[in-house]
Amino acid sequence: MQLAHTDGSMDFIKSLCGEFQKHNRIDPTYYEKWDVKRGLRNADGTGVLAGITQIGNVLGYYVQDGERFPMEGKLIYRGIDLNDLVNGFMSENRFGFEETAYLLLFGALPTREQLTLFQRALSVHQPLPPMFTEDMILRAPSGDVMNKLARSVLSLYSYDDAPEDRSLESEMGKAIALIARLPTIAAHAYAAKRHYFDNESLYLHRPQEGLGVAENFLYSVRHDNQFTEEEAKLLDLCLVLHAEHGGGNNSAFACRVLSSSGTDIYSAIAAAIGSLKGPRHGGANKKVMEMFGYIEDGVKDWRDDDEIRSYLSRILHKEAGDGSGLIYGMGHAIYTLSDPRAVLLKKFAKSLAAKKGMLDEFELYEAVERLTPEVLSASGQRKVVCANVDLYSGLVYKMMGIPQELYTPLFAVARVVGWCAHRIEEVYNPGNKIIRPAYKAVAPARPFIPLDQRG
Ligand SMILES: CC(=O)SCCNC(=O)CCNC(=O)[C@H](O)C(C)(C)COP(=O)(O)OP(=O)(O)OC[C@H]1O[C@@H](n2cnc3c(N)ncnc32)[C@H](O)[C@@H]1OP(=O)(O)O
Ligand SMILES: O=C([O-])CC(=O)C(=O)O
């Protein structure tokens, strides 16, 4: 944000930044000296144990005799391997997201009757409250759909008759309504963004009763409401893969931190959305597309490994890409050899690419996946890295004609399930304490100097 240019404010801001830089550097050696777990990580990169959960489990290495060994990744929802869950509903040619949401929220797979009732509850809550779109989305549109999503979730507080009711029944009702409404908010926020920021026509579609979450999303964001069953099933699969990732991922932890203070569900979910937006977390799916834009322009021969390697090395050294030095879609805090979600998405990306005549582009993604570990290791990095969920998700969405602005919001539409489950687990387990880690304070003691004696 720029201050008004009435008083040479840029010079003033520059001088304030200089003042900040003089007093605010933290010596990196302090982390070791005081045994501070930077990023809540132990020295070997494993996460500090910060809680107990029954919701999701993420496995990417095993520890033997105190040493950490890489392994193929596994993701477990409520004790069920993600691959088994996916194979289960896909082999019965059914949608899986609502069933997954039920499993994650309540802890067990639904019976047919429970699933029908749950689907109905979601369907009832899909429409937004009267005038919500007009007052909360269209009146103050945002150029960023994630930003609008967070603000909309916060403002749902004032549309709730009992926002501070912490009874389990009330929280479950709010969670179901949030899961149902997030896709509608994302679709309307995108429509507003297109209209007010991109000068496109405005169209707003109401969710249709009887359609599932994936179907309604496609129905709502497409101008002509048209989608095929194959597209809806693929989007449904993407939602299942993004629904949950343990208690320690940045957004779930943010949600748990806020929930542990006793605040309301809207505040906690809005915070989680803010976290997910970050480019090192869910926002990486958008960054991947931007990065491939650079790679596709900067690499002349997409089949030349040396040329790709050299371009990746330039990204790593901040000479290409967005200047962050990150190869988006690669690396993970837990996974080492593989992220099971990326493995599945890659399979679907490949068959879709074959159908759409986009195999060249798919192969470029594959080359980045294959060559990044080499490039990182050539630069001295010892960490074992693999493709994460964000590498292929955007390519799948692109081939389905879903606009880039909706990639991270789609992640939120799925992950709100995990966040709600973690919030409820945080709030409703007896004896849970407010999350309050410690910080080592290192500023030297100083006397107060009266104003007219300061130099
Ligand atoms: C849904 C999700 O959130 S999945 C993750 C999505 N994020 C991305 O794709 C962004 C790119 N990847 C990354 O930034 C990281 O791999 C993360 C954030 C995902 C994981 O981070 P961490 O577990 O903390 O890895 P960590 O930072 O310890 O990695 C060790 C080193 O490898 C580097 N590294 C790891 N991944 C990458 C990458 N993709 N590109 C460049 N360097 C990387 C780190 O910068 C770090 O370097 P340093 O030791 O010089 O500081
Ligand atoms: O677990 C993490 O750190 C990030 C991640 O993959 C997710 O939240 O899906």
From TrEMBL:
Q: Which InterPro entries match?
A: Citrate_synth-like_lrg_a-sub (IPR016142), Citrate_synth-like_sm_a-sub (IPR016143), Citrate_synthase (IPR002020), Citrate_synthase_bac-typ (IPR024176), Citrate_synthase_sf (IPR036969)
Q: Which family does it belong to?
A: Belongs to the citrate synthase family.
Q: What is this protein called?
A: Citrate synthase
List UniProt keywords, sorted A-Z.
Answer: Acyltransferase, Transferase
| Catalysis: reaction(s) | oxaloacetate + acetyl-CoA + H2O = citrate + CoA + H(+)
Give the Pfam families listed for this entry. Answer: Citrate_synt (PF00285)
Active site residues per record: 332, 390
The molecular function terms in GO held by this entry are: citrate synthase activity
Q: In which pathway does it act?
A: Carbohydrate metabolism; tricarboxylic acid cycle
Q: Which GO terms describe its cellular component?
A: cytosol
| An individual GO BP term | carbohydrate metabolic process
Domain of life of the organism encoding this protein: Bacteria
